[in-house]
Structure to design on (160 residues):
């Protein structure tokens, strides 16, 4: 495994649509393993392949119960609403208030190509929406109600 560099906002790669994964081979597994290590090191909740410069529909989410590997994910159900704070590893130090569904059901492939399904609420639902958006070249900042001010960010840091 190896750490990969996280691409920052402003890099055109983050605005592109990713291609589906067709080959579930060693190269894919290497990418996934590297992304898991990179996410762990970053302390974030999710990481999408374009954030490490790879234009494939792959992302990793870990809301504290271990990493889940999403390949070619699609949201098949979304219900409810939550207004939450959100940030992104590609936009360090920036946070916004955003509306996300409270509950999301997704279908995806695992690393062997098997079709899987998962449901999640709250942070997990939020993370699925955020990471899957990356695969379509969408950053959370284009969907926020508003970004947090310097003062709000300072208060947030003091609470930590
Ligand atoms: Zn992000």
């Amino acid at each position: 495994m190896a750490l990969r560099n996280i691409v920052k906002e402003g890099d055109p790669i983050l605005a592109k649509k990713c291609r589906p994964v067709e080959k579930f081979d060693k190269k894919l597994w290497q990418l996934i393993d590297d992304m898991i290590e990179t996410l762990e090191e970053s302390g974030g909740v999710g990481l999408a392949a374009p954030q490490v410069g790879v234009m494939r529909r792959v992302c990793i989410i870990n809301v504290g119960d271990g990493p889940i590997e999403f390949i070619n994910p699609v949201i098949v159900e979304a219900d409810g609403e939550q207004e939450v704070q959100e940030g992104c590893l590609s936009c360090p130090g920036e946070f916004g208030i955003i509306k996300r569904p409270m509950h999301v059901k997704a279908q995806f492939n695992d690393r062997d190509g098997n079709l899987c399904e998962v449901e999640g609420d709250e942070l997990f639902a939020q993370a699925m929406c955020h990471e899957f958006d990356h695969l379509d070249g969408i950053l959370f900042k284009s969907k926020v109600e508003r970004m947090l001010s310097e003062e709000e960010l300072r208060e947030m840091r003091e609470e930590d």
Q: What stands out?
A: The chain has a mean pLDDT of 97. Strands lie at 46-48, 58-61, 68-79, 82-87, 95-100, 103-109, 115-121, 146-147. Residues 88-90, 130, 134 surround zinc ion (CB under 6 Å).
